């Protein structure tokens, strides 16, 4: 933005110098034509500067929007990773409890191990549900903007 302002100042100063030099050298008709051309170029310059500013503002807004979207997706990925780690730990515990239960059945210690196995299975199911919910949330997070865009699309 500072570059645009600096360029604008330099261009306007150069155009003023050209206008001053033309005014000092030229005659009445020539000076009027040069002044008109100078005014036209200055107007085009202002339009270009305004257009560049508008473009920069639009790009800044898009960058901010994309940054927010990236942050939201990063948070979703982190939540999915956390739920996946919990699910893996629960499944590992469940496999260990099943192995212990098989061992207990062969040695006759079934009631104590059965309760622990049930607890491990409940924890694994809860972790699976949390992972599924996080995955659904991530999918909905991706679909919602697309559905809103389609709803507002012409036709």
Automatic annotation (TrEMBL):
Taxonomic superkingdom: Bacteria
Protein name per the record: Colicin transporter
Lineage, top ranks: Bacteria, Pseudomonadati, Pseudomonadota, Alphaproteobacteria, Rhodobacterales
Residue ranges the record marks as coiled coil: 49-137
Keywords of the record: Coiled coil
Organism, scientific name: Yoonia rhodophyticola
